[in-house]
Amino acid sequence: MSDPAPTEARLLEMVFPDHTNHLGTLFGGQALAWMDKAAFIAASRYARRSVVTARSEQVDFRLPIRQGQLVETIARVAGVGRSSMQVDVELVAEDLLSGERELCTRGRFVMIALDARGRPTVVPPLPG
Questions:
Q1: Burial of 30 (0-12, 13-18, 19+ CB in 10 A)
Q2: Closest by alpha carbon to 65, among 114, 101, 118, 119?
Q3: Which domains does the chain have, with CATH numbers?
Q4: Which of 71, 53, 52, 46 is nearest to 61 (CA)?
Q5: How many angstroms separate the CA atoms of 89 and 105, rounded?
Q6: What's the farthest any 2 CA atoms get from each other in the chain?
Q7: Are 94 and 81 in contact (CB under 8 A)?
Q8: Strands laid side by side in the 50-61 sheet
């Protein structure tokens, strides 16, 4: 069965002590790594190609994410060029006991699809 290529990926992570800084909040670098991973998965699934990160743009750290929170990383292919894909990524923190969720971080990543020789290759247009 062949469904249309998905344009979204969702990942879940727990914030453990080794993910945090001296204030008990998520390291910015760890947040970026989770966001890049989700962008990679969303772009790879959409293009059905190997992809690499070309750029991260305008990452806004709006609220701190604390140790012990669950983090849902949501990546959506928002735009497509010839070989590039713009992927919007959000980090949503969830308190496991109360269920309260907050959008904490948002950013955009540009991913490039590669052919078997590692050169940029054409990706399909977004469904309209």
A1: middle
A2: 101
A3: 8-114 (3.10.129.10)
A4: 71
A5: 8
A6: 49
A7: no
A8: 8-14, 70-80, 84-94, 101-114, 50-61
Contact between 85 and 46 (Cβ < 8 Å): yes
Residuewise pLDDT in 10s, the chain (128 residues): 555 568 999 999 999 999 999 999 999 999 999 999 999 999 999 999 999 999 999 999 999 999 999 999 999 999 999 999 999 999 999 999 999 999 999 999 999 999 999 999 999 999 87
Residue 6 identity (one-letter amino acid): P
Q: Which amino acid, one-letter code, is at 111?
A: M
SS (H, E, C) the chain: CCCCCCCEEEEEEECCHHHECCCCEECHHHHHHHHHHHHHHHHHHHHCCEEEEEEEEEEEECCCCECCCEEEEEEEEEEECCCEEEEEEEEEEECCCCCCEEEEEEEEEEEEEECCCCCECCCCCCCC
